[in-house]
Specification:
Elements: E1 2-5, H1 11-22, E2 26-31, H2 39-42, E3 47-51, E4 68-71, H3 83-98, E5 105-111, H4 120-132, E6 138-144, E7 147-148, H5 153-164, E8 167-171, E9 177-178, E10 181-182, H6 183-192, E11 202-206, E12 212-213, H7 214-224, E13 230-234, H8 239-249, H9 254-264, H10 275-279, H11 286-298, E14 331-338, H12 342-349, H13 362-374, E15 395-396, E16 399-405, E17 410-415, E18 421-430, E19 433-442, H14 444-470
Parallel strand pairs: 1-2, 1-4, 2-3, 4-5, 5-6, 6-11, 7-10, 8-13
Antiparallel strand pairs: 9-12, 14-19, 15-16, 16-17, 17-18, 18-19
């Protein structure tokens, strides 16, 4: 079956693509930037890739012979204050394009919307459902609540809270009830819903077997990790204070923290239906979902993360626009060393950041991360999705990977920290030399003052880093 897949680089779609390939389907994957094709499927014979931005439909060319499509575009982490309008416009343009094809079914992953008082994001999801309805194709909607899996936003936030805070003074929304669902079960619903006519033009709530409060989820998570945690809920924390609390303690952006707090005040309890029997699924409980997630983490086999989305940081434009280092109007710190063991150096470069640190003066990197967080930046807490693997679009502490190719022996990072300008960091091996280039393009007088204020630190921070990349202990 030929399937159109949107949101290809997103948390769910990236995993769903692998499942659909395994099921033998042919995929047409929509990406906004051809430099961000996931490595896992880039060379797969069952996949083709087309450049599509559904906010610019006039430039899009969708193949006429697609038979089904997945609409997996969301803007939970976006900083736009007008995301409802953007989501509606995106869905409208998608619908218009798909109606011109032979598509028989569109499957949309939405959110459970049974509460009388919905958050802005849940209202927007419901609006998208209504927009996607068509007389040209059948719409199948799966409505999920909290998704639990390695790399999911809710999982990583709970992990941050549990592993960092022995005692938590928390907002009262931790007593809100929800029905968490394992990400592997979400994928089973999405892939199992294909070509089932009994699901056409219907919406189904999909959820796990337990109703839990967020507090109970935190405590069960702690129990799985073998940690004793104490939680005290207070009624005095306002939504804004709650957002700041999540922002400073966890790896989330402030935009996502605000969206989550807004949504977490709403009970997410699903309506029973026969969907589990129709697809043949028995969802696992929350504890099992957490244990399965940690199996993936321990095997360094996390396929996707919410942090992979460019909107999780400050980067707004396509990666390809920044893939070459600028030459004019920039300040540069260029260092080189002779490489004695190329594989060793490449492995060290590809393992930089996250839990491995930056190999030199890590405390200074952490201080810079704290300062960035204080001024509304992403800080260091995002870490990295994999410990030893990088691809274009991946987050790397307060950097974004623009280019990563071991065959070309080049890694290029773009800074997402708060800066009065733009910054790049490149590692490249040419013959037997490693070149490390830090490039800064200042914005105005403050940008120039910033460069000279940090210049004294470069001598030992960057020098120590490049030495560590070529010297064996």
């Amino acid at each position: 079956m030929k399937i159109l897949l949107t949101g290809t680089t997103g948390y769910i779609a990236k995993r769903l693509a692998l499942q659909l390939i395994e099921d033998g389907h042919e995929l047409v994957c929509c990406v906004r930037d051809l430099e961000r094709i996931p490595d896992e499927i880039e060379d797969d014979a069952q996949c083709t890739f087309i450049k599509v931005d559904f906010l610019e439909p006039e430039k899009a060319e969708i193949p006429n012979d697609i038979e089904a499509a997945y609409y997996l575009i969301h803007s939970m982490a976006t900083s736009s204050s007008n995301f409802e309008k953007l989501e509606k416009e995106c869905a409208k343009n998608f619908k218009s394009l798909v109606e011109k094809t032979n598509c028989k079914q569109v499957i949309y992953l939405s959110g459970i919307v049974n509460d009388d008082s919905l958050s802005k994001h849940l209202k927007s999801r419901l609006q998208v459902e209504k927009t996607l309805k068509s007389n040209s194709y059948a719409l199948t909607v799966f409505r999920a609540g909290i998704i639990v899996g390695s790399g999911s936003a809710s999982f990583e936030i709970i992990r941050d809270l549990v592993e960092k805070l022995p005692i938590m003074i928390t907002p009262r929304w931790l007593n809100t009830k929800t029905q968490p669902l394992a990400v592997r079960d979400v994928l089973k619903f999405l892939s199992g819903g294909l070509e089932k006519e009994e699901l056409y033009n219907k919406a189904f709530d999909i959820f796990g077997p337990e109703i839990l409060t967020y507090k109970e989820m935190l405590l069960q998570f702690a129990d799985v990790r073998g940690l004793k945690r104490y939680i005290i809920t207070l009624p005095v924390l306002t939504p804004k204070l709650s957002s700041y609390w999540l922002y400073f303690v966890t790896s989330t952006s402030f935009q996502l923290a605000s969206a989550l707090v807004d949504s977490m005040k709403v009970e997410v309890i699903g309506k029973n239906s026969d969907i589990n029997d129709l697809i043949g699924i028995e969802p696992v409980d929350y504890r099992t979902a957490v244990e399965l997630a940690f199996q993936k983490i321990e095997q360094n086999a996390v396929v996707s993360s919410w942090k992979d989305a460019v909107s999780s940081g400050r980067f707004k434009s396509q990666l390809s626009k920044h893939i070459e280092l600028p030459q004019f109007g920039c300040y540069k710190d260029v260092r080189h060393r002779t490489v004695t063991d190329e594989q060793f150096t490449l492995d060290k470069i590809w393992s930089i950041g996250g839990r491995n640190g930056w190999y030199s003066f890590n405390k200074l990197w952490k201080i810079r991360g704290y300062m960035d967080k204080l001024f509304g930046g992403v800080g260091l807490r995002r870490g990295r999705t994999h410990d030893t693997y990088l691809e274009a679009g991946d987050p790397l502490d307060f950097w974004r990977v623009l280019f990563a190719d071991k065959k070309e022996k080049r890694l290029l990072l773009f800074a997402e920290m708060r800066l009065p300008g733009e910054a790049w960091l490149e590692f490249k091996i040419v013959k037997d030399k490693l070149y490390q280039r830090a490039v800064f393009r200042p914005r105005g007088l403050w940008g120039r003052l910033y460069w000279y204020s940090v210049l004294p630190f470069h001598a030992f921070v960057f020098n120590g880093m490049i030495n560590a990349l070529v010297e064996k202990d």
